[in-house]
Amino acid sequence: MKYKVIAIDMDGTLLNSQNKVSDINRQVLFKALDKGISIILSTGRILRSALYYSKSIGLNSPVITCNGALISSGDGKDIIYENPMKIESIKKLVKLAEENNIYYHFYDADTFFTKKTNDGIFKYYESYENSLKKQQINLQLIQNPMELLSQQKPIIYKFIIIEDDIDKLLGFEEKLRDIKGINISSSWHNNIEVMNEGVSKGVGLEYLMETLNINKSEVVAIGDNENDIPMFKKAGLAIGMENGAQEIKKHVHVITDTNDEDGVAKAIEKYVLGN
User: Fold this and answer.
1) Do residues 258 and 17 lie in contact, with contact meaning Cβ atoms separated by under 8 Å?
2) Which of 171, 184, 226, 267 is deepest in the core (most CB within 10 A)?
3) What are the φ and ψ backbone dihedral angles of 26, each rounded to 5 degrees?
4) What distance in Å separates the CA atoms of residue 18 and residue 111, rounded to the nearest whole number?
């Protein structure tokens, strides 16, 4: 079978525990590119972060970001597809999070909006050489989120809740289900990711498949967490990471090694390139 597209999640999948693309993963991605296969990063991350990694690898394909709420050209100059959140939905989320004393932040294409910073929360963006500045990500501290939302009406693609008390997090997730017009997902054990209704990596991938005139049998999807499940359902070959959440393993065709063992490279070599 000849695959034409490989959609790859970033955190916990293509990136190792140091938030880097290993040399082995990079080399195999280039082998796939040489075969005419498009490599599409599909991530929950903010657009600027996805573009930073895409360019550093040497890719020029579109990037699916914010769990499918925003798709950009590889150079970041053109928005191919977008489905932002409604301001009223964000206001309800802010109110609920503050009533329950739960950390949250939200973002547009290049700016984090938050009332407070937390080193742990921003570790993916600030650690090692991958600083917010280097990735061209702005951090805007806000005292009054409701005022910002009412007056500036920013185009927000994703709202993130983070809580280490899992029982509290699960209880909060139940409360979220009373808010209409949103879609709820997760990319890590201690977070909830909220987008506009109808948004998912699967919808984003399907949009690109239609644009590129590619059918399901020609698509490979690789990921590690709940927000990758919609993407798995659109792929002819769904590959889960060994380090991935248990929930994903019933939605994939095969499991590859962990993100620290170059699982992406091994999967592409074995199932796509046939080596």
Assistant:
1) no
2) 267
3) -60, -45
4) 23
Domain extents in the chain? 5-80+200-272, 87-196
Q: Does domain 87-196 have CATH number 3.30.1240.10?
A: yes
Residues ≥6 apart with Cβ < 8 Å to 178: none
Q: Tokens at residue 170, please?
A: 């699960």
Kind of pairing between the strands at 5-8 and 38-41: parallel
Residue identified by tokens 């399907």 is 206
3-state secondary structure at position 141? strand
Q: How far apart are CA 78 and CA 14, in angstroms?
A: 24
Judge contact between 232 and 248, C-beta under 8 A. yes
Residue with tokens 């590889």: 74
- Contact yes or no for 112/126 (Cβ under 8 A): no
Which ranges of 70-228 would DSSP assign to H, the alpha helix? Answer: 87-99, 123-126, 145-151, 166-176, 201-212
- Is residue 169 a contact partner of residue 190, using CB atoms and an 8 Å limit? yes
CA contacts within 13 A on the Cβ side of 53: 30
Q: 79 has which bridge partners?
A: 72
Nearest to 191 by CA among 13, 14, 47, 11: 11
Distance CA 80, CA 203 (A): 13
Kindly state the tokens that stand for 94.
């802010």
Please check whether residue 252 is in contact with residue 239, taking contact to mean a CB–CB distance below 8 angstroms: yes
Tens digits of residue pLDDT in 109-129: 999 899 876 655 555 555 434
Sheet holding 63-65, edge to edge: 63-65, 70-72, 79-82
Instruction: Report residue 78 as tokens.
Output: 């053109």
**Separation between Cα atoms, residue 40 and residue 108, nearest integer Å:** 20
The domain 5-80+200-272 having CATH identifier 3.40.50.1000: the answer here is yes
- For the chain, residues with pLDDT lower than 50 are 127-130
